[in-house]
Amino acid sequence: MNLSVYSIKKVLFQGQARLLNCKTLMGDITVLDKHENFIGVLETGVMRIVDTAEVEHFFDIKSGFFEVSQNNKVRCLIAQ
Predict the structure, then answer these.
(1) Average pLDDT, the chain
(2) CA pair distance 49, 3, nearest whole angstrom
(3) What's the rounded Cα separation, in Å, for the pair 41 and 79?
(4) What is the pTM of this model?
(5) HEC profile for 23-64?
(6) Which of 15-46 are b and which e, b meaning 16 or more Cβ less than 10 Å from the residue's Cβ?
(7) CATH class entry, domain 2-79
(8) pLDDT, tens digit, for every residue of 43-56?
(9) Where are the domains of the chain?
């Protein structure tokens, strides 16, 4: 999936990812390749990304939201 993670000040991650795991108002969610369209509100916690080279990236989050859209794109806007 094509994943972009933005904070207010900069781009934190942009590229191909195999997995996104984060805490939402509805509980923990894992987004995989070709996930259904979805919009979620992020809660305080740690966002985990596994890129296509199997490298893990971690970001502390205070709040935010994310969108899984057509064409296998995921966009996250977070407050740290």
Answers:
(1) 96
(2) 9
(3) 12
(4) 0.91
(5) EECCEEEEEECCCCCEEEEECCEEEEEEECCCCEEEEEECEE
(6) eebebbbbbbeeeebebeeeeeeeebebbeee
(7) mainly beta
(8) 999 999 999 999 99
(9) 2-79
